[in-house]
Structures are given as structure tokens and as C-alpha cells.
Specification:
The protein is 71% helix and 1% strand. It has a two-stranded antiparallel ribbon with strand order 1-2. Helix 9 (166-176) packs antiparallel against helix 10 and helix 38 (754-766) packs antiparallel against helix 39. The chain is globular. The two termini are 58 Å apart. It holds the Pfam family TIP120. This is TATA-binding protein interacting (TIP20) domain-containing protein.
């Protein structure tokens, strides 16, 4: 400690030196010392250091003064409170000094100290600062002091350090709004803006009422401007709080728009924009009024006469330019037009629900303003129209596109003129708008391409055009080429190609890169894929040489940007693919360059993709000159760790083997073959799938090569078949491979025979351990092997399919009947029997039926389930043989009904509608006999069968389901409603239009007296919202009140059950509430625009205090809402914080069971994820309750750990959110 004091004393002594360099170096050394975490000062040293630094602020040397200010920042946290008070007191006094330099440096010092003050700093420090600043604000005679005080006050309010002084500060700031100095008024507005987010609701109301009162007194225009500007600022900063005052504010602001003052009108529209963005719901009643005002004032240009005639317009522009008496600098009307257009843009971006009405009212008005003379305003018009297009694309409803189709010709006509203007900003706005239009309505510009081409060419060729302008023009041209048919551009190729070629040769790499993309699309235009040489009357030959030469030049260059290299390779690849027959002489040289690029680490991925493209070309390009070397290089890529490269290489090899097998010598494939076995592994299923697809192609195209590695590949394939991860595309690829393997022609190196393949597949299931490599066989493996066995059976040589099928059946029946067979062997045999029977090759054998029924009667659950599955599969293959038998068994065997219904479900799901049609009536009657079964599992199966059966003939069966709602018992109604859930599939289906008309009737069951019917109705509604939201969007207004009603806790459904000496509470309404909250979560993703988010949040708030399961759901919802609707969440923040805080701070009673501790811990974690999501919302900590809670989290180690970056990123990943659900 004494060493530190001694060192500091030496430095302080040097600071008194007459030499400025000594003083500078000593101050610098002191700053370095203070920045060390380890330094601790005693009381005397603290006092001396503070005194010296405050003295140095008055030093004659500016550099020393600046260093002294920098020293104050680390010093604040190193000294005790009395010294901080001394610093603040001195700095505040100096700030009001007559000396300008001392005043400025003291202001800087005070700002530095305030920035470093901890939030928990004592009231005495804050009081000292605020009292001094309030005094400084009152110094009317010195404006600079006032401005500095207001600046510092804004900084302090922004940090949230003055919560207890808000009232006195507001009282001091309000009089400053009437200051004769404009600068003081503006700074006061800024300070009030910083005060608003963290002040109490009462103070906010006081401020708003004050502004309203002052405005109602009809003050002078300059003061009115200040008050309106203040309103806009507090609305932007305070957000939702202003909502409750809008009824009084809007009429007053509307009234001031009629005052003949351009600046006042501008501020009025800025206030409207802030109201719209911050309080969209509360602004709903005023939208029509605001829209009309915007439409009126967006054309407000009293000093200019617009003329529709183009020539007259040019003349009037010339006259205006030559008029010396009038200057545009005096005209402020453009500010009114700009602010009204920005207000319109805010309306469009926040009210997607009014999109259709915007197309009838706002769209024509914006189109008419495309002729706006002021460049900045015109850019805002384009931006507003682009927002309208983006909102249309986001809504993606067919009805709204109809409203957009009509104005397209008008848009193009208006922009056609603008595209040739010298103004770069205008042209960029045009291209941005046209790009949005092309994205929004594909093909909309096809008829107008001749009108757009001159504008594109002008921007590419005009010498005064900037690089950014050219890039924008090329980017739009690329979008245009992608979204319109090639035939639309072919007639204009002579005009389009030269400027694009010139851009490819440009010295700026970004222009070259963008131009190569366009050139690539132009190659596609010259000859679309699969078209003959001169199809459609267009001959590409005159244009090929021009594109080829510039692309080749870029392809050969090695000293250019990587992006240009890659796009040159890709562009040349498309040329070879589409026009290779015209490049005969140069083709070999190009292919050699591709081979070189394939060997280069930087360009190899692009080269791989390009070779794959060329090899699949319908022109059958001769690649024999590079194939051997290319295959060797491609083989080496399969060893690389780069997954994208590996997948690209496999796709390229598949294309080469498929299309060029005749020119590939077996020896050339060896580098590839040696790498393939290692890729067939469950660690990467997609790579395995693509590898097996390549092996299948080899089996068909190069059988001799494959035979060499079959012994090393097959073990990996079998491991994959036995893997629990195998499904979908990878399984389909293996089935194709095994079938190709069996059908290989015999040769000296023939693949293993069928019996050996079958043995390898089924061996693990015959051992008593039933394991693969020591691990227990997963259920999925049984189904995979059964599918493989059936595939082998169906792929056998044509002369013996029956023999194989029968032998399979005998094998299976022997396994099933043998009492000594392991369970796994019997299950597999049954599944194999089913999969083979699915092809119809087993017929309707009585013996087979007997074997299946015997297995269904087994005592082993796994065997029974497999038998049920097998029966369903065989019925799919031989419907007429098995379906009557199956229906008869369901009727006569009530004890086996559940398993037999599973078989029936398989039949209904897998059979085509045409095959099922004759049997519909008999199945329907049988299902309705069982729809009131007491077993819920059986009822759900019946419902699934009914739903899937309805899809067979929806027009006839859907009305019959609807009738059952009125006639049936509660059990029957619940079955019917569940059946509707199974008619809603995620793919478009013929039933959709019928379902849309009548789903409202089924949703009326949300009002059913029976609680179970209401629960299944909610589940059905959830399914519709998730899979086909279009079915229920129009019904939200009527359905949501019933949905919200089910989220409420009903005391009449809570009962107590005595369990010995204990009493246990049972909530019969819990399942219904859970179903309701799950619906709400789904609606957030699919129907957000149809929700009143504030009303939605009311019910989320109730859920935060509910049962464990429901709280978990509402925490997820809150995290989701924080990202989707931050403004609405901020409005309800104070009410949402309390239940979150309660969850995070609740402790489990000592002596509780382990599960209670685990549940509470999981609740806390989920709540903290929601809190982390809230903390990510901008400006959230301006809320005093949130700031307090955030501070509590930071000071609590456990809670702080839960909001670590890893945890807070958890909830933002949709997959995790869904998995937790």
C-alpha cells in the first residue's frame, strides 16, 4: 500500500512542474495506474489525486487538460463517495464559469464522470448534480451554459440514474420549451425524450396534459411547432404510453395541419408517423383521417404547376431554370410532401390488414407522385411503393395480387421516363421498385420488357453513371431474367448483349462479377435447356463469339477477385452446357482450363458443380480428354473434410457415370471406388444417401467396376440398414441399390447371390441376443430390413418371382410358428411377409390368413403389433382378398379390435381412392358402429380411419360427418371432430375448398357442453392452424373468444381426491387449457396478422401464473412475442415482469421430493429464456421494473448464469422451441 502511495505522491509532485511535458507525462502515468484493477488508494491519496486532477482541468496546456479529463473515468470507480461529490461539485461550478475554455473542459469532465457513475450511486451525488444542472438551466442570460446543462441532463436520464428526481426535472424542463432560443427548445425536447421511457405513468400523463393544455391555448406558430415536435419525440421514445392520450391528441394535431406553415405541417406528419409506428392498435379509429390528410398533402406543391404532357413539362423546367427571381431554396413545401409520404409508408408497413383498401386508395396516389420534381421526395415515393409491394409479398394472398396486376402498366409507363433521367438517386429508386415488383408478381413485367430495356441499357452505358448505379442496373436485369421466360428477351438480344459484355470487361471487380451473372442468364436465353439449334426462330450463333471471348478472358485470368473467378467458371460452364455444339474448336481448351480450376483449392467447388452441369447437358459434350484425370482428382475430394465439396463431388460423379459411362474405362474409376465404402456410414445420412445413389448408377452403368468393391461396400450398407436413423431418401436409395445389385448380369466378378444378401440382412434378428454390434436392435431397423427383403423379392429375375415370393412366405410362416424362434425373428418374419404381400404376390392364401390371426392372438405385444402391420400391408396388395376378411374380423373379434383397426388404417392410408371406392360404404358403416367405444385409443383410431376415408370421396362423406355432429352422443361427437383433424393434411388436397366452407360448423363444438369434445375441437383447430391456416383465418373473429375462454381456470372443474391420509387436488380442466394455449402458440406463427396482440397478451399473462405445463408454454410464447411484436410486449411489460420474477425467485420447500426440485429448476430456466428474449428487445431496460429486475439478475450469480449467451440463443432457435413444446 505504501509503495502505491509513494508512487502516486511522486506523480502528483511532477504534475506541479512548470514544464508542460513533465505535467503531461505524469498525468499519463497516473491514468495508466488508475486503469489497473489491482490499485487501491488510501483516503489521503484519494483526496490528493482528485484535487490535483481538478486543478489540471484549469491547466494552460490543452493536451494536459484532455488527459486530466480522461483520468476522471477510471478514478470514479476507485474513490469513495465523498470524493465523487467533490469532483461533481467542482465540475458543476466550473461549468458555469465565465471562462469559455474552463466551461467546455468542465462539461466534458462532468459527462465523463456521469458516464462512469454506477446505477446504484447514492442519492446525495445525484442530488448534487441535478440541483446544479437545474440551476444552470435557469441561467437565461448565458445560452451556452443552458445548452451544456441540457446535454448533460440528457446523458444522465439516458443512463437511468435519476429516477427519484424525475418530478423536479420535469418541472425544470417544461419552462425551457418556451425559451426564446430555438437551440434551447430543441435540447429540452431531447432531454424530455430521454426522460419519457423511464418515468412513471403519472409523470408521463402530466407531461402530455401540459402539452395538450399549451396547444389548446393557440400559441404562436413557432411555439406550436415546438410542442408538436415534443409530442412526436415523446411518442417515439415513450411508445405505447401515448396510446391512452391519442383521442385528445389526434384532433388537435389534425387541426394544426390546416395552419399555413410548412414546418408545422411537417412536424404534424412526423407526429402522426410516430403515433402509427408506436400505437398501431390505438390509431385504428384515426387511420382513415390520417390517410386522407397524407393523400392531400403529398401533392402539396403550391409553387409548381405539374403538366402531364412531357414536352410542356420540359419547357416549364427550362423556364424555371432561367427565372432569377424565384429560388427553390425559399420553398419548404417539399418537407410537407416528404413527411406525409413517410407517414403513409408507416401506415402501409404497420397495417397489413388494410392492404386491399390501400390498393384502391393509396396505390393510385403514389403512382401519380412518380412525377415528383424534388429528388429526395421522389426517392421516398419509390420507397413507400416498394413497402407496399413487400407487404403484398409478405401477405402472399391471391386476392391481393389481383389488385396489383392492374397498375403494372401505369408503373412501367411512369418509371420508363425516370430510368433515362440523369438523377442517379431516382434511377436507383426505380430499379429497387421494379425489383420488388418482379419478386412480388412473377412474370408481371413480361409485356413491358421492350419499354424497360432502354432504361437498363442507358444506366449501363452512360459515362456519367456511377459504379453503384451500374451494379443496381445489372442486379435488376438479373432478377428480370430469372423471373421471366427466355423468349421475352430473345428479340432484344442485339441491344442487350453489348452493354453487358462491356460491363464484364470493366475494371471494377463488383461490376464484372454482377455482369457475369447476367451473361450466364443471357446464355440460357440464347438457347433454353433442351431446345434445338434454331427452335422458336431465334439463332444464337451471331452472339456466341462476343460472350465467349470476354468470358474466356476472365476465365484465363488468375490475378482477379475470387468472386469473378467463380462466376467466370460458372458462366463458361453454362455456355458449354447450352451452346457447346457451337464451340467445337475452342471446347478442348476450355475443358483443360476447367481441369486446372478443379485442381485449385480456391476454385475447386465451383469447378465441380460446373463439370456436373456440363456432363448432364443434353448436347452430350465429349469429356473424354479430361475424364481420367478429372476422376482421379474427384476421388481425392471424397477424402476431404469439407462436406459441401464432398456432396458436390458425389453429385458430379453420379452425373458423369450416368451420362458418360461408355467413355469411362474401369481403371479410371478405381480412385473413386476406393473412397466410397468409407462414406456409407450413419454419421452423415445425406452423404450416405448420395454415395449409395452413385453406387446404384455404377451398378447399372459399370457393373464390372462395382463388383470389385461389393465385398467392401456391402457391410457398410447393411450397417446402415440396421441403423435406427435410416428412413426417407436414404432408405429409398438403399432399396434401389439392392435391386440393382440383384439384377446385375453374371460375370466372373458377380455380386453375392440373393440368398447371401438375405442372410446378411436377417442374421442379427435370429440370434438370442437380437443385437447389431452389441447394441439392441431398434424398431425402425425391423421395418428397414423388411422393406429391403421385399425389394429383393420383387427384383429377382423375371422367370422366378413366384418361387421367391412363396419361399419367402414359407420362411416367414416357419419362423412365426416355431416356438423356439426368438421374438425378433418372428417380428421380422411378419413384417417381411407384409412388405412382400404389399406387392400382391402372395394372393389371398387362407394359410397366410391363419398365420396372421395366430400371431395376432399371441401373448407377445411386439408380435401382435407386427402381425397387425403385416395384415394391413397384405390387404393393400390384395384388397379384394383381404379387406372383407379384415372387416369381418373387426366385427367378430372385439378383443382384437384395436390391432385390426390398425391394419384397416394402413389399408385406407396406402390404397388409391379408385381401389377403395367400392368398399367405402361397408368400411364407413363398420367405423360408425365403433365410434362410441369407451376406450379412447380405439376411438382415436376410428377417427383417424374416418378422416382418411373421407379424403377418398370428400364431396359425399364430409356432409355425412357434419350430420353426425347433431345426432351423436358426446363420444361420437369427439370422434367426428377428431376425424376432421385427419382430413387436414399439410399438402394441397381436393377436400380443402369443401373443408373451408364447413369447418366453421365443426368449430362450433368449441361451445359444446362436454369438456372432452371441447378439448378435441381445440386439438383439431390447432392442426388446422398449423397445417392449413387458410382454412381458419376468416373465422378467427368468431373462434378466438371461445379459445380465450378455455384458457381460464374454472374452479368448478377442480376437485379434491383423498388418497389415504393425504388429499390430492385434481384439475379436470387442465388438459383443455393446455390445448388452448398450444393453439395460441401455433397462431403466433401462422395467423399473427389476425390477432389482437394486446388481447392475446392478456391471456398469456394469466398463463404465466397457471400450472407448470402451461407456464412452460407461455414462457415460450413470451419469447416468441418479444421477437415478433416487441412494441406490444413493451406496452404490457410491467404486468408481465411480476409473474416472471415470481417464478425466478420461488424456492421449493425443504424436504420436497427430487422431482419437485427438478420441475422448479426447469421452470426457472424456461422463465430466464423468456427474460433473455425480453432483454434483447431494444429500449426494454427503460422500463423501471425491467431495469430493476435486470439489475437483480446481474447481482444474482445463479440467474446471471442462466442468461448466458448460450442460454439466450437457445430460445431463438425454432427447432429448440418446437422440441420443448
Amino acid at each position: 500500500m505504501s509503495n502505491v502511495s509513494y508512487h502516486i505522491s511522486n506523480l502528483l509532485e511532477k504534475m506541479t512542474s512548470t514544464d508542460k511535458d513533465f505535467r503531461f507525462m505524469a498525468t499519463n502515468d497516473l491514468m495508466l495506474e488508475l486503469q489497473k484493477d489491482s490499485i487501491k488508494l488510501d483516503e489521503d491519496s484519494e483526496r490528493k489525486v482528485v484535487t490535483m486532477l481538478l486543478k489540471l482541468l484549469e491547466d494552460k496546456n490543452g493536451e494536459v487538460q484532455n488527459l486530466a479529463v480522461k483520468c476522471l473515468a477510471p478514478l470514479v470507480s476507485k474513490v469513495k463517495e465523498p470524493q465523487v461529490e467533490t469532483m461533481v461539485d467542482t465540475l458543476c461550478s466550473n461549468m458555469m464559469s465565465d471562462k469559455e475554455q474552463l466551461r467546455d473542459i468542465s462539461s466534458m469532465g462532468l459527462k465523463t464522470v456521469i458516464a462512469e457513475l454506477p446505477l446504484s450511486s447514492s442519492a446525495s451525488v445525484c442530488k448534487k448534480i441535478t440541483s446544479q444542472l437545474i440551476g444552470a438551466m435557469g441561467k437565461q442570460e448565458d445560452v451556452s451554459v443552458q445548452l451544456e446543462a441540457l446535454d448533460i441532463l440528457s446523458d444522465m436520464l439516458g443512463s437511468g440514474a435519476l429516477v427519484s428526481f424525475h418530478s423536479s426535472l420535469l418541472s425544470s424542463l417544461l419552462p425551457q420549451l418556451t425559451s426564446p432560443r430555438m437551440a434551447v427548445r430543441k435540447r429540452s425536447i431531447m432531454a424530455l425524450g430521454h426522460l419519457v421511457p423511464c418515468c412513471s405513468p403519472a409523470l408521463f400523463s402530466q407531461l402530455t396534459e401540459h402539452l395538450l393544455t399549451e396547444l389548446s391555448k393557440a400559441p404562436p406558430t413557432s411555439m406550436t411547432r415546438t410542442y408538436i415536435q415534443c409530442l412526436a419525440t415523446i411518442s417515439r421514445q415513450g411508445g405505447h404510453r401515448v396510446g391512452e392520450h391519442l383521442e385528445k391528441l389526434i384532433p388537435m394535431v389534425v387541426k394544426f395541419t390546416s395552419v399555413e406553415d410548412d414546418e408545422l405541417r411537417e412536424y404534424c406528419f412526423q407526429a402522426f408517423e410516430a403515433f402509427i409506428r408506436r400505437c398501431p392498435k390505438e390509431m385504428s379509429p384515426h387511420v382513415a383521417t390520417i390517410t386522407q390528410l397524407c393523400l392531400k398533402f403529398m401533392t402539396f406543391d403550391p409553387n409548381y404547376n405539374y403538366d402531364d404532357d412531357e414536352e410542356e413539362e420540359e419547357d416549364s423546367m427550362d423556364i424555371e431554370d432561367s427565372d432569377d427571381e424565384y429560388s427553390d431554396d425559399d420553398d419548404m413545401s417539399w418537407k410537407v410532401r416528404r413527411s406525409s409520404i413517410k407517414c403513409l409508408e408507416a401506415l402501409i408497413s404497420t397495417r397489413r390488414d388494410l392492404l386491399l383498401s390501400f390498393y384502391s386508395s393509396v396505390c393510385p396516389a403514389l403512382l401519380a407522385r412518380f412525377k415528383e420534381r424534388e429528388e429526395n421526395v421522389r426517392a421516398d415515393v419509390f420507397a413507400a411503393f416498394s413497402t407496399l409491394l413487400r407487404q403484398t409479398r409478405g401477405g402472399s394472398r391471391k386476392g391481393k395480387f389481383a389488385g396489383l396486376a392492374a397498375p403494372v402498366p401505369v408503373i412501367v409507363k411512369a418509371l420508363h421516363r425516370q430510368l433515362k433521367e440523369k438523377s442517379i438517386k431516382s434511377r436507383q429508386g426505380c430499379f429497387c421498385l421494379l425489383t420488388e415488383l418482379a419478386h412480388t408478381v412473377t412474370g408481371a413485367l413480361e409485356q413491358h420488357i421492350p419499354a424497360l430495356i432502354p432504361g437498363i441499357v442507358f444506366s449501363l452505358t452512360d459515362k456519367s453513371t456511377s459504379s453503384t448505379m451500374r451494379i443496381d442496373a445489372l442486379s435488376f436485369f438479373h432478377v428480370l431474367l430469372l423471373s421471366h421466360p427466355p423468349q421475352a428477351f430473345q428479340p432484344h438480344m442485339q441491344v442487350l448483349l453489348p452493354p453487358v459484355v462491356a460491363c464484364v470487361e470493366d475494371t471494377f471487380y463488383k461490376i464484372t462479377s454482377e455482369a457475369l451473372l447476367v451473361a450466364q442468364q443471357l446464355v440460357r436465353v440464347m438457347r433454353p435447356q433442351g431446345q434445338t439449334a434454331t427452335a422458336g426462330g431465334f439463332d444464337p450463333k451471331p452472339f456466341i463469339r462476343e460472350v465467349f471471348s470476354v468470358t474466356l478472358k476472365r476465365l484465363k485470368a488468375t490475378d482477379i477477385d475470387q468472386e469473378v473467378k467463380e462466376r467466370a467458371i460458372s458462366c463458361m460452364g453454362h455456355m458449354v452446357c447450352h451452346l457447346g455444339d457451337h464451340l467445337r474448336a475452342e471446347l478442348q481448351g476450355v475443358l483443360t482450363i476447367f481441369l486446372e480450376r478443379l485442381k485449385n483449392e480456391i476454385t475447386r467447388l465451383t469447378a465441380v458443380r460446373t463439370i456436373a452441369l456440363i456432363s448432364a447437358s443434353p448436347l452430350k459434350i465429349d469429356l473424354s480428354s479430361i475424364l481420367p484425370e478429372a476422376l482421379s482428382v474427384l476421388g481425392s475430394f471424397l477424402r476431404k473434410n469439407q462436406r459441401v465439396l464432398k456432396l458436390g463431388t458425389l453429385a458430379c460423379l453420379t452425373a458423369l457415370v450416368t451420362h458418360h459411362a461408355a467413355t469411362i474405362k474401369p481403371a479410371a474409376l478405381e480412385p473413386v471406388l476406393s473412397e466410397l465404402p468409407a462414406l456409407v456410414d450413419e454419421s452423415d445420412m445425406h452423404v450416405s444417401q448420395v454415395s449409395v445413389t452413385l453406387l446404384t448408377c455404377m451398378a447399372k452403368a459399370c457393373p464390372s467396376s462395382l463388383a470389385k468393391i461389393s465385398s467392401s461396400v456391402l457391410p457398410g450398407v447393411f450397417r446402415l440398414v440396421h441403423s435406427p436413423l435410416l428412413q426417407g431418401g436414404a432408405l429409398a436409395a438403399i432399396l434401389d441399390f439392392l435391386q440393382a445389385l440383384v439384377t446385375l448380369k453374371t460375370s466372373p466378378l458377380s455380386p453375392p447371390p440373393l440368398s447371401q444378401l438375405l442372410k446378411s440382412l436377417t442374421d442379427p434378428f435370429h440370434s438370442s441376443q437380437s443385437s447389431v454390434d452389441g447394441a439392441v436392435i431398434h424398431r425402425q431397423s425391423y421395418h428397414s430390413v423388411a422393406r429391403c427383403v421385399a425389394a429383393l423379392s420383387s427384383a429377382c429375375p423375371k422367370e422366378t418371382p413366384g418361387t421367391v415370393a412363396v419361399s419367402m412366405y414359407l420362411l416367414s410362416s416357419a419362423q412365426i410358428k416355431s416356438p423356439g424362434s426368438p421374438e425378433s425373428a418372428r417380428v421380422l418374419a411378419l413384417l417381411c411377409l407384409g412388405e412382400v404381400g404389399r406387392t400382391g404376390s402372395l394372393g389371398g392364401s387362407k394359410e397366410v390368413q391363419g398365420v396372421i390371426l395366430e400371431a395376432i392372438a399371441s401373448t407377445n405385444e411386439e408380435v401382435k403389433t407386427a402381425a397387425s402391420c403385416a395384415l394391413g400391408s397384405m390387404a393393400v396388395g390384395s384388397l379384394n382378398d383381404y379387406l372383407p376378411f379384415l372387416l369381418k374380423e373387426i366385427s367378430s373379434q372385439p378383443r382384437r379390435q384395436y390391432l385390426l383397426l390398425h391394419s384397416l388404417k394402413e389399408v385406407i392410408s396406402a390404397c388409391p381412392a379408385s381401389s377403395l371406392s367400392p368398399h367405402v360404404e361397408s368400411i364407413w358403416a363398420l367405423l360408425f358402429q365403433n365410434c362410441e367405444c369407451q376406450e379412447e385409443g380405439t376411438r382415436n383410431l376410428v377417427a383417424e380411419c374416418l378422416g382418411k376415408l373421407t379424403l377418398v370421396n370428400a364431396a359425399q362423406l364430409l356432409p355425412r360427418l357434419k350430420q353426425q355432429l347433431k345426432a351423436g352422443s358426446p363420444l361420437a361427437r369427439s370422434t367426428v371432430v377428431t376425424a376432421i383433424k385427419f382430413t387436414i393434411v399439410d399438402q394441397p388436397a381436393p377436400i380443402d375448398s369443401l373443408l373451408k366452407d364447413c369447418i366453421g360448423d365443426f368449430l362450433k363444438t368449441l361451445q359444446d357442453k362436454d369438456i372432452n369434445v371441447r378439448r378435441v375441437a381445440l386439438v383439431m383447430f390447432n392442426s388446422a392452424a398449423h397445417n392449413k391456416p387458410s382454412l381458419i383465418r376468416g373465422l378467427l373473429a368468431t373462434v378466438l373468444p371461445h379459445l380465450y375462454k378455455e384458457t381460464q381456470i374454472r374452479k368448478d372443474l377442480i376437485r379434491e381426491v383423498e388418497m389415504g391420509p393425504f388429499k390430492h387436488t385434481v384439475d379436470d380442466g387442465l388438459d383443455v387449457r393446455k390445448a388452448a394455449f398450444e393453439c395460441m402458440y401455433t397462431l403466433l406463427d401462422s395467423c399473427l396478422e389476425g390477432l389482437d396482440v394486446l388481447q392475446f397478451l392478456d391471456h398469456v399473462e394469466e398463463g404465466l401464473k397457471d400450472h407448470y405445463d402451461i407456464r412452460m408454454l407461455t414462457f415460450l410464447m413470451l419469447a416468441r412475442l418479444a421477437s415478433l411484436c416487441p412494441a406490444a410486449v413493451l406496452q404490457r411489460l410491467d404486468r408481465l415482469i411480476e409473474p416472471l420474477k415470481a417464478t425466478c425467485t420461488t424456492k421449493v420447500k425443504a424436504g420436497s421430493v427430487k422431482q419437485e426440485f427438478e420441475k422448479q429448476e426447469e421452470l426457472r430456466r424456461s422463465a430466464m429464456r423468456a427474460v433473455a428474449a425480453l432483454l434483447a428487445v431494444p429500449e426494454v431496460e427503460r422500463s423501471p421494473s425491467m431495469a430493476d429486475f435486470a439489475n437483480q439478475i446481474r447481482t444474482n450469480a445463479d440467474m446471471a448464469n442462466m442468461t448466458s449467451p448460450q442460454t439466450s440463443s437457445y430460445f431463438t432457435q425454432e427447432g429448440n422451441v418446437v422440441s420443448e413444446l
